[in-house]
């Protein structure tokens, strides 16, 4: 058979197809059998099912349109074991011309004596009904509910006024007039930082975002052309966000567009679903979208510096999502209609941190979150008689350390925890491979490694808090070249490239002084050995006893104190060393993890 056209049924069970023989066949895909066929005067060229009902339309080569009702006849217990149709063009089902025995199968011969389909008694009737396939039910595909996109921190309209954005920096207020026009006020909480701005909303801005870097607006698509604005004729902006470097716009074409502060297009990337909301902070971008052919929400966290996806996670659809935010450390935060604030901790999943409901605030009062830190949820409280909302705060039951919740999935090179662990791993491997392990020196090296690890962790915390002077002061206490390299990589990870040159200068200065101190230590050790021998001879002469003197035992008992004492000068900076003798560098001195001999 040469098939000219074919079409699936909406429920995915049946297939109807036409052939060059001017016939239309109905096939049950689940039971793998042909149901019936229909004859036409012309070849069938097109078939279309009704999505909600058991009906279809067929077009022929002659341009005729055939309307068929009940193409798949519903079988119930009261029906006979044969299929009929409302169209008279159906051929006999069992004894048709092609002798293909459409509905004849093994299930119809329940009794070996009834070889001609004759029924002996009523019991056979009941048994045939039980063995017959279940009745076919109507399948009506339910439409997938589209989740409405939202802009974080935007409030609903109330008293001809709404807030396009309200953050810890300031607010964007949209005031509606009776004639349908509106005005926009951009206000900062610190009036000395920026002056209030007021302008007429002639572009009908419906979304806004304010931060310490500026304010961002978007409007619905319009037919008018303006050379000074970035416009899309067919797409509409669903959500906007901004960080210290870029502005982001999520459109209904499932793309996120990235722009510079000057309006220059940088890049765009696709999302596998309809965008619901976006949030950006400190080079982290969080995109919430509705999955394809599903009512389930999912979010993706992206590092815009490395352009890598850090994590993907589904969001429960039990409650409606109201607000999202990504913190400075890259921790996704979600707030739903049940008052639950959820923080996503990488592979550990979600952690309900607080339960906060508006019903406890009293009548004529509503609120919305604006910021999450490690100790509390900051939200805005708005009452009926107050012209402007005022901020409030709900503390967490237990403080959350957001620094340790950074998810670096797929980005192990810039993981601060892995970077600090490399100090000890590389050191032990190098010393074991080169057989340079010494008991006393090994204890000293382990002590330096532990100290450097604590310093690196403190440097990481100071970089997050933008304490530049403290970072440089801490770098001066590092011991090895590997530790300085880790500090430089941390500065690159937290977008503080201006610290790398300063850290390198401190490293060069510190390592040069350590080399000069080591050369001075070697010279002092020779003098110490000569002095110890002289003291031993004098003590033997005075006491005439073979016991070991106190001066010999004291350096061994207090070896740890001697290591930290200024006389050794192994880690103490000496700008003007007394001895300038230079010795040749051995293999152990060239490696920062070697045992000093």
TrEMBL record:
Signal peptide region: none
Region annotation (Disordered) ranges: 514-597
A Pfam family that the UniProt record links to this protein: Mcl1_mid
GO biological process, one term: DNA-templated DNA replication
Record field: compositional bias (Acidic residues): 517-535
Protein's UniProt keywords contain Nucleus: yes
Main location: nucleus
Bias (Polar residues) ranges: 549-559, 572-597
Biased segments, Basic and acidic residues type: 539-548
Segments traversing the membrane: none
Domain WDHD1/CFT4 helical bundle: 423-511
Cellular component GO terms, alphabetical: nuclear replication fork
Any one GO MF annotation of this record: chromatin binding
InterPro entries on file: WD40/YVTN_repeat-like_dom_sf, WDHD1/CFT4_beta-prop_2nd, WDHD1/CFT4_hel
Domain WDHD1/CFT4 second beta-propeller: 148-400
Protein localization: Nucleus
Alphabetical keyword list: Nucleus, Repeat, WD repeat
Official protein name in the record: Uncharacterized protein
Species, as recorded: Rozella allomycis (strain CSF55)
């Amino acid at each position: 058979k040469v098939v000219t056209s074919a079409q699936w049924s909406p429920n995915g069970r049946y297939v109807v197809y036409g052939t060059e023989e001017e016939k239309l066949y109905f096939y049950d895909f689940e039971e793998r059998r042909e149901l019936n066929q229909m004859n036409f005067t012309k070849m069938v060229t097109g078939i279309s099912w009704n999505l909600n009902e058991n009906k279809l339309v067929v077009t022929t080569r002659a341009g005729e349109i055939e309307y068929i009702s009940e193409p798949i006849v519903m079988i119930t217990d009261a029906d006979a074991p044969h299929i009929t149709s409302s169209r008279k063009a159906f051929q006999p089902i069992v004894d048709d011309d092609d002798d293909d025995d459409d509905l004849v199968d093994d299930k119809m011969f329940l009794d070996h004596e009834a070889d001609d389909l004759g029924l002996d008694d009523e019991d056979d009737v009941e048994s045939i009904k039980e063995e017959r396939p279940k009745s076919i039910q109507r399948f009506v595909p339910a439409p997938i509910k589209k989740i409405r996109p939202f802009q974080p921190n935007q409030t609903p309209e109330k008293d001809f006024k709404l807030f396009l954005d309200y953050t810890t920096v300031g607010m964007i207020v949209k005031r509606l007039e009776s004639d349908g026009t509106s005005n926009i006020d951009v206000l900062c909480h610190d009036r000395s930082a920026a002056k209030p701005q007021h302008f007429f909303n002639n572009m009908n801005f419906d979304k806004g975002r304010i931060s310490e870097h500026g304010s961002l607006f978007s409007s619905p698509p319009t037919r008018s052309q303006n050379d000074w604005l970035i416009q899309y004729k067919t797409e509409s902006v669903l959500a906007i966000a901004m960080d210290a470097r870029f502005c982001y716009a999520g459109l209904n074409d499932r793309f996120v567009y990235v722009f510079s502060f000057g309006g220059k297009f940088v890049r765009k990337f696709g999302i596998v679903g309809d965008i619901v909301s976006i949030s950006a902070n400190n080079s982290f971008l969080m995109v919430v979208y509705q999955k394809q052919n599903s009512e389930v929400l999912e979010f993706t966290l992206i590092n815009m510096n490395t352009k890598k996806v850090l994590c993907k996670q589904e969001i429960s659809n039990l409650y409606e999502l109201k607000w999202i935010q990504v913190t400075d450390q890259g921790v996704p935060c979600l707030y739903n209609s049940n008052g639950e604030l959820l923080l996503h901790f990488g592979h550990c999943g979600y952690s309900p941190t607080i339960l906060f409901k508006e019903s406890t605030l009293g009548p004529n009062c509503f609120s919305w979150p604006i910021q999450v830190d490690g100790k509390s949820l900051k939200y805005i409280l708005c009452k009926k008689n107050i012209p402007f909302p005022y901020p409030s705060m709900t503390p967490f039951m237990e403080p959350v350390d957001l620094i340790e919740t950074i998810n670096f999935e797929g980005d192990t090179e810039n993981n601060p925890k892995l970077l600090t662990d490399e100090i000890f791993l590389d050191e032990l491997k190098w010393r074991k491979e080169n057989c340079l392990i010494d008991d006393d020196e090994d204890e000293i090296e382990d002590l330096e490694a532990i100290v450097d690890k604590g310093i690196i962790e403190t440097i990481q915390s100071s970089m997050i808090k933008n304490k530049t002077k403290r970072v440089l002061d801490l770098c001066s206490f590092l011991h090895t070249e590997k530790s300085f390299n880790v500090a430089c990589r941390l500065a690159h990870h937290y977008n503080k490239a201006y610290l790398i040159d300063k850290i390198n200068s401190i490293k060069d200065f510190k390592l040069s002084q350590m080399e000069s101190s080591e050369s001075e230590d070697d010279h002092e050790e020779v003098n110490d050995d000569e002095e110890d021998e002289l003291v031993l001879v004098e003590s033997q002469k005075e006491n005439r006893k073979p016991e070991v003197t106190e001066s010999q035992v004291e350096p061994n008992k207090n070896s740890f104190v001697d290591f930290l004492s200024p006389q050794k000068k192994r880690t103490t900076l000496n700008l003007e060393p007394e001895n300038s003798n230079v010795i040749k560098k051995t293999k152990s001195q060239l490696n920062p993890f070697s045992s000093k001999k």
